[in-house]
């Protein structure tokens, strides 16, 4: 079985882009050594799923999140299917790295470093380059892709890297970030972004619990009807509840290519 068989299988399952990286080409200084995840790892398969345009462009963050949830759901199942496909056909090990979580939330990284940095993996697999917003821009789908990866013992060479600088320096992502998290080039201010994009994450939960524990019974009653609690309640079963997508949504790169694109399943985007 070769790269193209796996690529086609990924497309058939619904991925929009599929790329390959030899493990020595994956370089993410702050991330764990991939050998601690799968000792015999030789390559990474990286898959991308596009966000739905109508959802991303909606001013309603629940509508935007619904598209993300769909992409996360199919990506998880697909990672499992592809890993099993490789193990069955090639008799080598494979292991899945999902969209964002499960995530190590213990110190020192506190949920800010994934087991594999999927942006660096996507770049190594020839799927795109970093933009001013510190996200990966793909030549066809621009910033509107979310990524997953599969670690495998299969020896595969990397796909050719994207060499073109796809970011056109329009600065829209910086201007439209409601948190001011992108003001410093090459760095995302994580705490500023987190407060706006994931207010019902662990920080929001701790803040709310602190307030609740210190409150009088009357105040506690009111706190149970507080919009923050209602949002935390939903986050407890939805998972990460993203409420800002601006830096992806405003980036103009790739938008003209993507509408009506019929490339899926034929060639690497
Ligand atoms: C933790 C995390 C965050 C943290 C950021 C922590 C961080 N610095 O990386 C917070 C909560 C802030 C965050 C926010 C967002 N995230 Co996030 N996040 C992750 C997660 C789970 C781990 C990232 C990680 O391991 N970082 C640690 C290391 C890699 O970071 P680093 O080495 O410091 O690299 C940083 C810089 O050095 C810079 N960088 C590195 N090399 C280079 C090279 C050049 C040329 C440039 C310009 C920059 C640059 O980019 C990084 C950003 O700060 C990944 C999923 C995953 N497993 O990868 C998703 C992921 C990165 N997030 C993603 C997204 C979409 C978002 C948000 C838009 C939120 C949302 N609505 O979905 C925002 C965007 C913020 C932004 N514009 O930077 C996507 C990105 C997809 C893409 N097309 O690039 C990912 C890959 C999830 C996925 N599976 O698709 N995220
Ligand atoms: S997700 Fe929102 S808050 Fe975070 S960097 Fe992007 S635009 Fe800014
Ligand atoms: S919005 Fe403009 S500056 Fe930001 S990443 Fe996209 S092209 Fe680059």
Give the domain tally: 2
Small-molecule binders here are: cobalamin, iron/sulfur cluster
Biggest sheet strand line-up: 1-2-6-3
Q: Helix count, per DSSP?
A: 11
Total count of strands: 6
Catalogue the unreliable spans.
Answer: 259-269
Q: Major beta sheet, specifics?
A: 4 strands, antiparallel
Order of helices and strands: HEEHHEHEEEHHHHHHH
Q: Roughly what is the average pLDDT, rounded to an integer?
A: 93
Overall morphology: globular
Fraction of residues in helices? 25-40%
Note the gap between the termini: 21 Å
Q: Report the sheet-strand fraction.
A: 5-15%
Question: What structural class do helix, strand and pairing data support?
Answer: alpha+beta
* Alpha carbon gyration radius: 20 Å
Main attributes?
disordered C terminus; 269 residues; alpha+beta; binds iron/sulfur cluster; 2 domains; binds cobalamin
What does this protein structure show overall?
The chain has 269 residues and is of the alpha+beta class. The chain folds into 2 domains: 3-166, no CATH class; 199-238, no CATH class. It is 39% helix and 11% strand. The chain is built from 11 helices and 6 strands. The chain has helices spanning 3-13, 53-57, 61-90, 118-124, 172-175, 190-197, 202-213, 217-223, 227-238, 246-249, 255-258, and strands at residues 17-22, 43-50, 94-97, 129-130, 136-137, 145-152. A 4-stranded antiparallel beta sheet has the order 1-2-6-3, sandwiched between helices. It has a two-stranded antiparallel sheet with strand order 4-5. A hairpin with a 5-residue loop joins strand 4 (129-130) and strand 5 (136-137). The longest helix has 30 residues, at 61-90. The chain binds cobalamin (B12) and iron/sulfur cluster (2 copies).
């Amino acid at each position: 079985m070769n790269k193209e068989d796996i690529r086609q299988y990924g497309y058939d399952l619904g991925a929009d882009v599929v790329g390959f990286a030899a493990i020595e080409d994956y370089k993410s200084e702050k991330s764990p050594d991939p050998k601690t995840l799968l000792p015999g790892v030789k390559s990474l398969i990286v898959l991308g799923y596009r966000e739905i345009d109508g959802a991303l462009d909606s001013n309603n963050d629940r509508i935007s999140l619904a598209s993300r949830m769909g992409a996360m759901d199919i990506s998880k199942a697909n990672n499992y299917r592809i890993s099993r496909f490789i193990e069955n056909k090639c008799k080598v090990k494979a292991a899945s790295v999902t969209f964002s979580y499960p995530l190590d939330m213990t110190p020192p990284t506190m949920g800010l470093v994934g087991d594999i940095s999927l942006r660096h993996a996507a770049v190594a697999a020839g799927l795109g380059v970093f933009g001013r917003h510190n996200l990966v821009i793909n030549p066809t789908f621009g910033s509107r892709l979310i990524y997953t990866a599969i670690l495998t013992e299969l020896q595969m060479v990397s796909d050719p890297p994207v060499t073109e600088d796809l970011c056109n320096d329009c600065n829209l992502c910086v201007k439209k970030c409601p948190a001011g998290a992108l003001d410093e080039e090459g760095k995302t201010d994580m705490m500023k972004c987190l407060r706006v994009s994931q207010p019902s994450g662990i920080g929001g939960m701790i803040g709310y619990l602190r307030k609740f524990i210190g409150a009088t019974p009357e105040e506690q009653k009111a706190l149970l009807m507080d919009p923050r609690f209602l949002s935390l309640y939903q986050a407890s079963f939805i998972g990460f509840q993203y409420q800002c997508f601006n830096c992806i949504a405003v980036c103009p790169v790739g938008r003209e290519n993507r509408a009506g694109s019929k490339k899926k399943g034929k060639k690497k985007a």
